[in-house]
Design a protein that fits this description.
The protein is mostly beta strands and about 120 residues long. The protein has no helices and eleven strands.
Length: about 120
Amino acid sequence: QVQLVESGGGSVQAGGSLRLSCVASGSMLLINAMGWYRQAPGKQRELVATGSVGGNSNYADFVKGRFTISRDMAKKTLYLQMNNLKPEDTAVYYCNLVHNGVDYWGKGTLVTVSS
């Protein structure tokens, strides 16, 4: 069983930065994928960034050049560095991990960006 706990959300002004963290507990032997998603009010959940165990990263077009996904496998922690935040980045951000073919989600952390 895998559990994910996000932290690092908060309120910032446009142009500011935040760093989200996601700490995983449980077995990490069969990780298939990991990433960050977000869901804005009234909208569907959408992919923000994914990172593979091998080191490859992929980003949604709307965050390219502003967000960076990284991970510390020894600490079982996934990060999302968010720079130059925009009001449209306001959302609940969720950590996702696919382990042995099963999707796991954290409860999310709220990011609010004011203009």
